[in-house]
Amino acid sequence: GPVLDAQKPRRLVRVVVSGGAPAERSGARAEVERVLVALRAALDDHDEVAVVWIPGDPTHGWGLKRPEDGELLAAVRGGPASLRVVLSDRPAPAAEDDILWVGVAPADASNTGIVGVVVEDVDGEPTLFATLLHQGARGVTGRVEVRPASTGPGSAGAAFAIEPGGAVSVAIKLGALRGQDVLVELVDDARDDESWADALDADDVVRLLYGPLRVAIDARLPAVLRTHITHGLTAVLGAEGFVASDDPILAFGPRGSVPHGVRRVQFEFVADGAEARRAPPGSEALGSDPLVRDLTTAGIEWTYAAGAERVEPDELLMLGRRAPAGVWPVLLRRGLEVRLAPDPLRGSPAPVHTPFWPLWIGNLVVEGATDRVGHGYRAVGLLDAPSSRLGGFRSALAPARLVGLAPVVPGRSRPLRPLLLLSGLLALGLLWALPRVRRARAARANPHGARAGTSPQAHS
Question: What is the pLDDT of residue 58?
């Protein structure tokens, strides 16, 4: 019999965009939008395109490190989908039948960036060596300048010239700048030269901070947790290796309270008397991020506040426990933000009372906060070579992959026969009742109408 469509089938395309510094390059966002527009145009209005930036959306304060291919593959397989798509400026590491890999590199890009900084003694004077990497069809010339990060005396610099696709190391004596926070910056001395078309700004400036690591520990954290954080930092850096600061490089606080623009560590807590959830035993779910090096979930009772175990769409799972019902997240990353999903103070044993704690604090300091570059300096904003290297992979969206996609939510239909039968019975009932209703109304309007034409005297 006839049927009624109660719900149309819904298809979901899961798109993972390779973020990091190369996604900030000139024209990169436009290339991504080009593919997203084509995807949405090929789908129906009730279908959905879910977009995830790895390691984070560049509009929300994100990490600059280029994600590994394994991170992109794990993220694109991280949920149900009718089609899985990766957008990157580099080709796929290998053919994947279930993944459509689309190249979004802007055409004809050129870039020069700082990929290494070290401070060494040369003839008894601290000397900065900056390593520059250039990509482009033509060579470039310019200067590396070193100046105070705020107010202070002195400045220094040196010229450079790099051949197409080459690298060079520039030496600059710090002189009066020694002992100050400084900025190391690439300066183009020929802005009218078309060969200097720098596609990426993120690798043009590096901050060198002098002295101990600057840390902020939010006073709203429980006192016992603040103590454990301090002990962890002391174990890694020594008592003189870090200092409290209002301008931190590494900040700790409750979720949603830590300032942006720095490596921030955020904690979840189970409120007194509130329901707590515990992760069951299981195997390791481990990502490739250096922040989880040497970490394990074994031997720890992970305890969660209600909802804290939920992974947000733009969060990347770094470490978790894989149980039969799914993965319980332990460490998650969104750009510069790291979230410890379980309560660090709950459990038998709690995370702060296990080897996990000092190892994790050490990873945060060594891998996540700054790089020690010599003579008491720490480098902030220094990209590794892969993150500063532009990919050149471009490809078109294959329309054939969008044909015949299976829905993630199947359609539902209802048979119309019962509804039609009910409608017929209602119609018959109305046809039977309407004449009787009309006669009843007429009788009420004219109660003597039944004796019309008979006089009262006839019955006397």
Answer: 45
